[in-house]
Design brief:
The protein is an alpha/beta fold. Among the domains are: about 60 residues, no CATH class; about 100 residues, Nucleic acid-binding proteins (OB fold (Dihydrolipoamide Acetyltransferase, E2P), Beta Barrel), CATH 2.40.50.140; about 35 residues, no CATH class; about 240 residues, 4-Layer Sandwich (Metallo-beta-lactamase, Chain A). The protein is about 45% helix and about 15% strand. The chain has 25 helices and 24 strands. Helix 7 crosses helix 16. The radius of gyration is 28 Å and the shape is globular. It comes from Pseudomonas taeanensis MS-3. It is found in: Cell membrane. One of its GO terms (biological process) is establishment of competence for transformation.
Length: about 725
């Protein structure tokens, strides 16, 4: 079983998938090894082949490259609960049909300004389809891996649509129940109640999610193994209590009845929550735990857990691509390590405290390996929130939902549950403000292994030799793994922020951020991409935040950056148009300075008539190699720059205005004469950036093109005259090249 699990999990770490002929050959090789009693190797090959074949099926179900960016009429049924936010309706479509092409089995679509949609409805839609594609940045969320794990073969934007049939099935019933829950007054926490009852987190605000992340309590607001186990435990405990009091019919053996009812309750709750992959995983684990309790207690607890792990992976080998898989099973294994085989009884508060201690310390290596933030306040917050939600809010919410048909009764219970949730969020907000989450820097393998060994030692029982050595090993957490550039050199990162711009420049002892990425409603690229990249690179402060101008695609993420890191000074070409809290100063033409042997110069057109023309231009020179960052200046501003007398020759040029036709004039391109051009843009953007005419001008001067869409985040070692590197070329089998 261990060999089979290891073979399946190896998929997560593959740069590329083996060829199909090899995947067919490996199981045959395993069968040939059986006479030699090589059972572990045989089952390892079986697991590895099965995982790779499933991954290849998912990759083959992606949108045909010839259809990428095209608009097609499709028909399909809405599955899951549609999400609404900032005027955008996001939903998944299955049973997809099109007269013109074969399409993936599942699509994820966005409808800007769309009407209210219901799960179970069938629609005919005109959709602009795109192959799965995500932003690729250092230490940021891998959207493409998530799409593959969800088996989503294409994304798209709805242009127009018509309803073919009304909602039907279980999905429609869940949607009606969600609307009912959202319509019940509950102290403004109706969305949180829907999350607890139905697993629909779309009703929680960005501020709510930030508080939950900072306090390490996200698991409480999504239906996870804890909620499924709680439901099963309450039903099991009900029958066990009746039997203990002598109120259970003696003709019915109480233990099998308790196990059966508990499992039925877990399945019912799972169906209510949509039976997604995490819920299926929890139901399998609860079912095996109940089976162990009823019949097979002699197996211990490790073997049933291994069986649950195996069942989950056999049903969905791609589950290993999701962080929740590792955190879920990691948490269960930690609890087994803490509580199994201990001598003596613990009080309830000791049990809860030990559990939170295990989660805080034991999950630390996993969180770091997955690039997730670590909540320093998590143990304290969970010590309060776990019993609060588990023993009070969830039972009241479920009972209130069940009694909604009784006039006034269900609403009253939900009102009380909402009040308890509102009070909890107020307390968690105070804790989050006091001690927000910490994003550790990326560690080298040796430092991570030391931390993992240290956590294992600390979780061992008291009295184990060398247990206190774990504290010393945890000091590797504070090792700064990111080497700084040498004196006279600069490291430049053009982050992949879609249709926007954010460039990080690091010298030996200073850091500058040129633009902060865009923000679209609650979707803030400054918070989701720029900040994690800064923290992963061990940048905790900025000497200068230079916002070229105040357009959203350049300045939208500035507030998130300010909240996340300390900023010494803010400069902009449009300081008056930025939020006052940034306290931005005006960009000055002709200003220059040196950091660690690297020279910086700024320029701004004094006669600018619009925001783009007012962009603050930055020239960086390291060991004779020059880079020109131009913001969104147009051809008129380019002419003014050439007339200013500034030497604009540069080895690296950030294409003005993302490669727009209104910029990169022939005279400007010839004057700069770059050997390489950097383009930051979004895939299939509506502006047509970069324009073919502009690309032709750069090719005419033999400049090499670096594009964030094609290569992800770009890294340049300025001062070494070396070629640039794109993160998308780091091989991952699920990543679009």
């Amino acid at each position: 079983m261990l060999a089979l699990v290891a073979g399946i999990l190896l998929l997560r770490f593959l740069p590329t998938l083996p060829p199909v002929w090899l995947l067919c050959l490996l199981p045959m090789l395993g069968l040939m090894l059986l006479p030699f009693r090589s059972y572990p190797l045989t089952f390892f090959l079986f697991g590895f082949s099965w995982a790779c074949i499933c991954a290849q099926w998912a990759l083959d179900d992606r949108l045909d490259p010839q259809l990428d960016g095209r608009t097609l009429w499709v028909q399909g049924q809405i599955v899951g609960l549609p999400e609404v936010g900032d005027g955008v309706v996001r939903f998944q479509l299955e049973q997809v049909e099109s007269r013109r092409a074969k399409l993936p089995e599942r699509l994820r679509l966005a409808w800007y300004g769309g009407p209210e949609l219901r799960a179970g409805e069938t629609w005919r839609l005109a959709v602009r389809l795109k192959r799965p594609h995500g932003l690729v940045n250092p230490h940021a969320f891998d959207y493409e891996a998530w799409l593959l794990a969800q088996r989503i073969g294409a994304t798209g934007t709805v242009k127009t649509a018509e309803r073919v049939s009304v909602a039907s099935g279980v999905g429609a019933w869940r949607d009606v129940l969600r609307q009912r829950l959202l319509g019940v007054p509950a102290h403004g926490r109706e969305g949180a109640l829907a999350a607890l009852v139905l697993g629909d987190g779309s009703g929680l605000s960005v501020a709510d999610w930030r508080v939950l992340q900072d306090t390490g309590t996200v698991h409480l607001m999504v239906i996870s193994g804890q909620h499924i186990a709680l439901m099963a435990g309450l039903l099991y405990g009900l029958i066990a209590g009746l039997a203990r009091l002598g109120w259970w019919p003696r003709a019915w053996p109480w233990l099998p009845c308790a196990c059966a009812l508990a499992f039925a309750g877990a399945l019912g709750y799972g169906m209510l929550a949509g039976f997604e992959v995490p819920v299926r995983r929890a139901c399998v684990m609860v079912g095996l735990a109940l089976l162990w309790r009823w019949r097979f207690r002699h197996l211990g607890v490790g073997l049933p857990l291994l069986m649950a792990l195996l069942v989950v992976l056999l049903l969905e080998p791609l589950a290993g691509l999701q962080p929740g898989f590792w955190l879920s099973f990691g948490a269960v294994m930690l609890l087994i390590l803490i509580f199994n085989g201990r001598l003596g009884a613990w009080t309830w508060w000791q049990t809860l405290g030990r559990a939170q201690w295990a989660m805080a310390v034991g999950l630390l290596p996993l969180l770091m390996a997955l690039g997730l933030p670590v909540s320093a306040s998590g143990p304290l917050a969970n010590l309060l929130a776990v019993p609060w939600v588990g023993l009070a809010v969830v039972p009241l919410a479920l009972l209130g939902t069940l009694l909604l048909p009784l006039f006034g009764v269900g609403e009253a219970l939900l009102w009380v549950a909402g009040g308890l949730l509102d009070l909890l969020f107020m307390l968690l907000s105070q804790i989050a403000d006091w001690l927000p989450a910490w994003q550790p820097s990326a560690l080298p393998l040796w430092a991570w292994l030391l931390c993992a060994l240290g956590t294992v030692l600390l979780l061992l029982p008291a009295g184990v030799p060398l247990r206190s050595l774990g504290w010393l090993l945890l000091l590797a957490l504070f090792y700064t793994p990111q080497p700084r550039p040498a004196l006279g050199q600069a490291e430049v990162w053009v982050l992949d922020v879609g249709q926007g711009l954010s460039v990080l420049l690091r010298t030996h002892g200073h850091t500058l951020l040129y633009d902060a990425g865009p923000r679209f409603g609650d979707f803030d690229l400054g918070e989701r991409v720029v900040l994690p990249s800064l923290r992963g690179l061990d940048e905790r402060r900025l000497d200068l935040l230079l916002i070229s101008h105040a357009d959203n695609d350049h300045a939208g993420g500035a507030r998130a950056i300010q909240r996340g890191v300390a900023i010494e000074r803010v400069v902009s070409g449009e300081p008056e148009a930025l939020p006052a809290v940034l306290q931005a100063q005006a960009c000055e033409a002709g200003r220059s300075w040196q950091w660690d042997g690297v020279r910086f110069s700024t320029w701004r057109w004094a006669d600018a008539r619009n925001a783009n023309q007012a962009s603050c231009v930055l020239l960086v020179e390291a060991a004779g190699e020059r880079m020109l960052l131009t913001g969104d200046i147009d051809s008129r501003a380019e002419r003014a720059l050439l007339d200013s007398g500034l030497d604009v020759r540069a080895d690296w040029l950030l294409a003005p205005h993302h490669g727009s036709r209104s910029s990169s004039s022939p005279a400007f391109v010839r004057a700069v004469a770059p050997r390489a051009v950097l383009i930051s843009r979004g895939q299939h953007n509506s502006f047509g950036h970069p324009h073919p005419t502009v690309l032709a001008r750069y090719h005419a001067v033999f400049a090499r093109i670096y594009d964030t869409v094609e290569q992800g985040a770009l890294r340049v070692q300025l001062g070494t005259f070396a070629a640039g590197q794109g993160l998308r070329h780091r091989a991952r089998f699920w990543r679009e090249k």
